[in-house]
Amino acid sequence: MPTRRAFIAGAASLPALAPAARASEPVSHVLRAAPATVQLAPADFPLTPLWAFNGTVPGETLRLRQGDMFRARLENGLDQPTTIHWHGQRLPNAMDGVPYMTQAAVMPGDSFDYTFRLRDAGTFWYHPHANSLEQISRGLAGVMIVAEAAPPEVDAEEVLVFDDWRLTEDAQIHPSFNSRHDKSHGGRLGNYITVNARPEVTGQQVSGSRLRLRLVNTATARIFRLRLDGVRAWIVALDAMPLDVPEETRELILAPAQRADLIVDVTAQPGEEAMIASVERDGTYAMVTWAVTGPVMTARTAPRALPPNDMPRLAPDDARSQPLVLEGGAMRGLPEEAVWKGERQAARKLIEGGQFWLFNGVAGMPDTPLVEASLGETIRIPITNRTAFPHAMHLHGMHFREILPVGLGPWRDTLLVGPDETREIAFVADNPGNWMFHCHMAAHQMSGMMNWIRVI
After folding, report:
1. Which domain holds residue 234?
2. Which of 155, 268, 153 is nearest to 209 (CA)?
3. Is residue 307 part of a domain?
4. 124, 147, 170 — which closes off a domain?
5. Each residue of 228-285: pLDDT tens digit?
6. What is the pTM of this model?
């Protein structure tokens, strides 16, 4: 495997890597990443050139079954290298889609076959892990749904992909991908929010009907605060993993890369509306609006928990602890010196190189992992955020639970850590390989907030 420096060195390292492998079985899905043009802004604006999987934004929703073998071919129709990361999947390391760590980047005109068994049911998503800030911001993202053997009884299901876009006045993607302000502040926040690439999703629902909603945040920086009106809602899964007991809610925080499965009963009466709204600093925006019709269906009891996935036994009291301290960014700043590219360098040099954030005093991907764990070992990571901004911390290949004062939180793969917070997670290192652990605000990741975990 190339060194961590090769990981961030870019295409210059590619000749040293093996070519992409071909699966022996035929693929069931072909995902072509290529330019596309869509009506992203309202109809009185011009079309927006984007990058898309198979010409649609969001990309095709892949509907699959737990336990099946998944086979997909990525075809690169872009003018730059790319990959696909299957976010939240517990899969073999070679299929994780991280260029220069788990596979060679897929060069323009080339393809790569991904093959892995679908261990878990739930709501996942897929996106590039090469030049992530630009490629995701231009539209490369899609949802992957793995159905349970015994799904809950509902009247309808909807997939809702929340995103934001930075557009120019003529509805073109703003080219400010290398903005120092974004990197050192809250990330690339857009000026136009959408659900399923539309400003609002509308439809009809019968009063009393029960829905399953699969919510996904594919934005690179925006934290969505969602308010639900005209429904009674329960969270039944977070980041694909079922909760032990469904949790009733009226509001939901969805950080970049996080997902939530809801069971909702429509409580609005015929002639009224039910909705999901996004609470933003400048107001509240209806994102999903259902006109409610009759006849009124009979009220139901609270939903039962979804069938659990096969998760490891977590014993945090006996675990080894490895702290992680987040530093840097605007308003707090870098220390006078920090490690970058394996050497101690002045803060000025880091800033000139576009590095604004530190993990344990190191900017960018280090040569040595944050943790080297034995297979089956339980690891605790207290995460202390000394910055002025929130960070969505994502672990590849495994799920973790937060250690709470009253027990353990739900299984997750992405945790939002607010400014001046310390949040502690624990996970079982049950998946061998080298796994990224990084901030999923893509501008933060690219400007310093990357590390990795080795499981041997």
Report:
1. 156-293
2. 155
3. no
4. 147
5. 999 999 999 999 999 999 999 999 999 999 999 999 999 999 999 999 999 999 899 9
6. 0.94
Q: How do residues 282-338 score in pLDDT, each as one tens digit?
A: 899 999 999 999 999 998 999 999 999 999 999 999 899 999 999 999 999 999 999
- For the segment 72-126, what is each residue's pLDDT rounded down to a tens digit? 999 999 999 999 999 999 999 999 999 999 999 999 999 999 999 999 999 999 9
Identify whether 417 is part of a domain: yes
CATH number, position 75: 2.60.40.420
- Residue 18's pLDDT is 35
Q: Is residue 309 part of a domain?
A: no
Q: Residue 16 pLDDT more than 60?
A: no
